[in-house]
């Protein structure tokens, strides 16, 4: 189990350290885990002058899975586009062909108060958003800023999906729906965009191979509304890269505790990059205040999806449930009556619960 | 004051009838209002075989303003793309050059319970979303479905904005911010899309002409989160066509009472199309159940933006506030303790309050 560990920027190193402690417990209990570190994003620019240097690239290509903290920070805002931290993230996704981004939005009962939505609307929330991650307008050509025939500057990007790209993400989404509530909602804007009309057509075609899954379709504007109106209507959602970027962030915020949400980005063979859904939080970096649970739960997803270690994954997830039940809270999810702990304090609690 | 009235489909005719009654009161009190009807969407397809026939086009071109109900219905779902109701909507926007879509998200104190969000998060909510409406990936060329060099089918659309298109919507947004809280948030995905990087650059340039307005920038995924986390941080938001489609629907649903929300779509000279933010609700069409208030408030926006009749606009808005305070509610916003009224019953109440 070769894991490339990329702490990244901001709170990345702190939260990664706690997830590594968890993986070390599993190793000492017999899992053949090997971990090696490399920089990504701003940290990689500082060390190698590039957000995804070949040192990191080689390590990640060789590894079975990648565990990432987070990238980005204000000190990199004025770098030229190609050198900014998020370029490292886009580059590693494309380089490793991590086309399937899984983003659960789960509300832990103990944290129901953290949501800005009424408890009855979100209690028990458990949505899985499957976002295509290596196509769409993120990578489509042509793109750029140019002077048009009228002598005026204009800018353009290309939304683009091939049949094969849609088919493979459809299979991932239907496969996940089969293991969950067997309901899949495909999100498109088929009334306006040919690309998503095509998306819908392929989804319908792939659905014939999964007769047990109930497939529905929703326009992206309506999906953005329905997530607010009645999020519990959803089981699994599947959509393209840009719509998925927007909707998965909206869905995660419904829980009010984004510091709890992991994510996975998988290739065709379940090699994956695992990272928390939240960002690098430069304002609290280095202060031992961050919530490491999303990163620890990302490590659990890694055990499940890449290494097929369902028992070990559940052991980690149960440890997280235990520490919540015990009342341990980092600052972002703190409520009176609970015990406030630091990032490393939360790591201690999880290790103890394991 | 020449107004083209387009009832459209579903509940359109019912809600339009109540808004017309309101305008007739104002006419009998001296405003030189003239109204003529034409079909749009499915109704136009039924009568003329096209969702935006030349009969309707001529009437709308001649008018100073257009009042629209809503378009769409399941009976049109299997028409070929070019004949579907929403094509009528896209066509009239483009034909009349209605590039500035104003979508307020306002929570009426009496309806605070209708929201799925906690009262403290949304009470007093008053956001104005300015959405560019005639550019972006909605209209960008090239677009289509084709076979690529590898012999595989693929589909594509083009996100595209010229400098002039961005500049004119920027001026509308800054102008509105000047009349409100002087805070403007421009939403982009400048870290990934050149088109929105260009958008941001032009926004910053136009900002120099409005030194009193505080301009901020937010990525679209973060905006989708922040609308859930703390929507009251926003005053005016401005964004492109597709992001605006998604975010304005999300924002309107924060209120829980989308039956209350009007919209305006303006050209360079404040000619405008006014319509409720909600859809054609085919399930309750013809039952005198729909909420006509969003359409009545759309007529108020028309008085304000096209006809510069601020006093008359406020008179209508105050009448709506009065009927809410009196406890009249259509089914969509009904609560125990209030008086349930039909669509026409709500029209009666507003006319009486006027
Ligand atoms: C940082 C950015 C490029 C990235 C994206 O848009 O994919 C982020 O928002 C995400 O969702 O992982
Ligand atoms: C019906 C559809 C074409 C339209 C749009 O996407 O603009 C609608 O969603 C809207 O927002 O008015």
Automatic annotation (TrEMBL), chains A, B:
- Swiss-Prot/TrEMBL cofactor(s): Mg(2+); Mn(2+)
Q: Where is the Isopropylmalate dehydrogenase-like domain?
A: 2-350
Residues engaged in binding substrate: 93, 103, 131, 221
Q: Which GO terms describe its molecular function?
A: 3-isopropylmalate dehydrogenase activity; magnesium ion binding; NAD binding
Pathway listed for it? Amino-acid biosynthesis; L-leucine biosynthesis; L-leucine from 3-methyl-2-oxobutanoate: step 3/4
List ligand-binding residues for NAD(+): 73-86, 279-291
Q: Does the keyword Oxidoreductase apply?
A: yes
Q: Which residues bind Mg(2+)?
A: 221, 245, 249
| Enzyme Commission no | 1.1.1.85
Q: Which UniProt keywords apply?
A: Amino-acid biosynthesis, Branched-chain amino acid biosynthesis, Cytoplasm, Leucine biosynthesis, Magnesium, Manganese, Metal-binding, NAD, Oxidoreductase
Provide the site residues for: Important for catalysis: 138, 189
Q: Which interval of the chain is the signal sequence?
A: none
**Name of one Pfam family that matches:** Iso_dh
Output the InterPro entries linked to this UniProt entry.
IsoCit/isopropylmalate_DH_CS, IsoPropMal-DH-like_dom, Isopropylmalate_DH
Q: Cofactor: bound how, per the entry note?
A: Binds 1 Mg(2+) or Mn(2+) ion per subunit.
**Which GO CC terms are listed, alphabetically?**
cytosol
Where mainly located? cytoplasm
Family classification: Belongs to the isocitrate and isopropylmalate dehydrogenases family. LeuB type 1 subfamily.
Q: What does this protein do?
A: Catalyzes the oxidation of 3-carboxy-2-hydroxy-4-methylpentanoate (3-isopropylmalate) to 3-carboxy-4-methyl-2-oxopentanoate. The product decarboxylates to 4-methyl-2 oxopentanoate.
Quote the protein name from its UniProt record: 3-isopropylmalate dehydrogenase
According to its UniProt entry, this protein's organism is Vogesella indigofera
Q: Which gene encodes it?
A: leuB
């Amino acid at each position: 189990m070769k894991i490339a560990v990329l702490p990244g920027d901001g709170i990345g190193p702190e939260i990664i350290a706690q997830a590594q402690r968890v993986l070390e417990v599993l190793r000492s209990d017999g899992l053949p885990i090997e971990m090696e570190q490399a920089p990504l994003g701003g940290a990689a620019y500082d060390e190698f002058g590039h957000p995804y240097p070949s040192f990191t690239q080689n390590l990640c290509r060789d590894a079975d899975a990648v565990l990432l903290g987070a990238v980005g920070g204000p000190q990199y805002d004025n770098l030229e586009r190609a050198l900014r931290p998020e370029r490292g993230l886009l580059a590693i996704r494309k380089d490793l062909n991590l086309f399937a981004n899984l983003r659960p939005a789960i509300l832990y009962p103990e944290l129901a108060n953290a949501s800005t939505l009424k408890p009855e609307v979100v209690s028990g929330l458990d949505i899985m958003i499957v976002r295509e991650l290596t196509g769409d307008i993120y990578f489509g050509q042509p793109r750029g800023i140019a002077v048009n025939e009228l002598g005026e500057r204009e800018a353009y990007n290309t939304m683009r999906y091939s049949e094969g790209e849609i088919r493979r993400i459809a299979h991932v989404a239907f496969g996940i729906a089969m293991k969950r509530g067997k309901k899949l909602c495909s999100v498109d804007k088929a009334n306006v965009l040919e690309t998503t009309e095509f998306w819908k057509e392929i989804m319908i075609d792939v659905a014939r191979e999964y007769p047990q899954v109930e497939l529905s379709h929703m326009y992206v504007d309506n999906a953005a509304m329905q997530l607010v109106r009645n999020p519990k209507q959803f089981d699994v959602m599947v959509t393209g890269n840009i719509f998925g970027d927007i909707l998965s962030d909206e869905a995660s915020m419904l829980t009010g505790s984004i510091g709890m949400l992991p994510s996975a980005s998988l290739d065709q063979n379940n090699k994956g990059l695992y990272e928390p859904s939240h960002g690098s939080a430069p304002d609290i970096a280095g202060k031992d205040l961050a919530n490491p649970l999303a990163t620890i739960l990302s490590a659990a997803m890694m055990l499940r999806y890449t290494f097929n270690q369902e028992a070990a994954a559940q052991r980690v997830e149960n440890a997280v449930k235990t520490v919540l039940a015990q009342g341990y809270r980092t600052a972002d999810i703190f409520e009176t009556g609970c015990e406030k702990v630091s990032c490393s304090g939360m790591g201690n609690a999880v290790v103890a619960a394991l």
